[in-house]
Design a protein that fits this description.
8 strands, about 35% helix, alpha/beta, 10 helices, Rossmann fold, 2 domains, 8-stranded mixed β-sheet
Length: about 325
């Protein structure tokens, strides 16, 4: 159901610093950056960033009441401060889930709230389905089920009709005779040996997403989406996951297995005008999980920084803390 917009919207909690940071070894080449902030004795929450290939940032701590939450964040394999950067080796949904579990055990946490938006919602759902006994509840934003229709909409034909100006810039690095399969054309270049072409395509791929996240349009693109240091990891890892169907064993694996977590409380924040992860996916998840709370934000797109999304997520984390 859609809740009525509150008379006064909630804002982010004050800025806080991490009280502990570190790197976690894995059973592969990867070392995972992690941090903790908030109340060491509070309700544990794991924060799963988007992309795949994005990164955590200090602003993500501010969706949580620091007096109530023990906020755990990590940079997923190949991105952010995790090492090696932009690596696709042993980088799958299942190795990320193994990293989350390894970190939970390392920190001595029994169960935690699972928080994620966009690809972070995908990973949150996959983690909870795989380890339902380790989740207290879920707080999700911009539902992405990583299905072929969603990918076709955003990377081939769909969002292009709403943002034709940004779409022209996305098309520009790819020759016309390869544009019938844009993900494949980008993948070839993002994983190729030509570093200059890789960087150019990474910035174009990343900028396309950055220019469409907000209802304000391309002018609201976050600066980092056009910076090579961020874009290369973001684009390479996203394209790698998308070309491989998220490494799920079947299409609609998340919806087909949602019965494993229907007993868990879940809050879904979804922008009505989200072009990156359109509302059809949040609606499908809510239909499959009618016990979930679907909060449709009437004046928002995909960005977690939009006022209505901030309001919904802060209310969602407060709700999860009061369960």
């Amino acid at each position: 159901m859609a809740f009525p917009a509150p008379a006064t919207r909630r804002d982010l909690y004050p800025e806080i610093e991490a009280y502990q940071t570190g790197f976690m070894a894995t059973d592969s080449v990867h070392e995972i950056y992690w941090e903790q902030s908030g109340n060491p004795d509070g309700i544990p929450v794991i924060v799963l960033h988007g992309g795949p290939g994005g990164a955590v940032n200090p602003g993500m701590r501010r969706y949580f009441d620091p007096a109530k939450y023990r906020i755990v964040m990590l940079d997923q394999r190949g991105c952010g401060r995790s090492r090696p950067n932009a690596s696709l080796e042993d980088n799958t949904t299942w190795t990320l889930i193994a990293d989350i579990e390894r970190l939970r055990e390392q920190l001595g946490i029994d169960k935690w709230v699972v928080f994620g938006g966009s690809w972070g919602s995908t990973l949150s759902l996959a983690y909870a389905i795989t380890h339902p006994d380790r989740a207290l509840s879920l707080v999700l934003r911009g539902i992405f089920l990583l299905t072929r229709p969603e990918l076709h909409w955003f990377y081939q034909d769909g969002a292009s009709h709403i943002f034709p100006d940004a779409w022209e810039r996305f098309l520009e690095p790819i020759p016309e005779d390869e544009r019938h399969d844009l993900m494949g054309a980008y993948y070839k270049r993002l994983t190729g040996d030509d570093a200059a072409e890789r960087d150019r395509c990474a910035i174009a791929w990343s900028s396309w997403e950055g220019e469409t996240v907000s209802v304000q349009g391309p002018d609201a693109r976050p600066d980092r989406f056009a910076e090579a240091d961020f874009a290369v990891a973001f684009a390479r890892i996203e394209c790698w996951y998308f070309m491989n169907g998220g490494f799920f064993p079947e299409e609609n694996w998340l919806l087909n297995n949602v019965h494993r977590i229907r007993h868990l409380p879940c809050w879904i924040a979804q922008g009505r005008f989200d072009v990156v992860t359109p509302m059809t996916s949040a609606w499908a998840l809510h239909r499959a999980w009618p016990e979930s709370k679907l909060d449709v934000v009437p004046d928002a797109g995909h960005a977690s920084s939009e006022p209505g999304i901030i309001d919904s997520l802060v209310r969602g984390t407060d709700w999860a803390a009061g369960l």
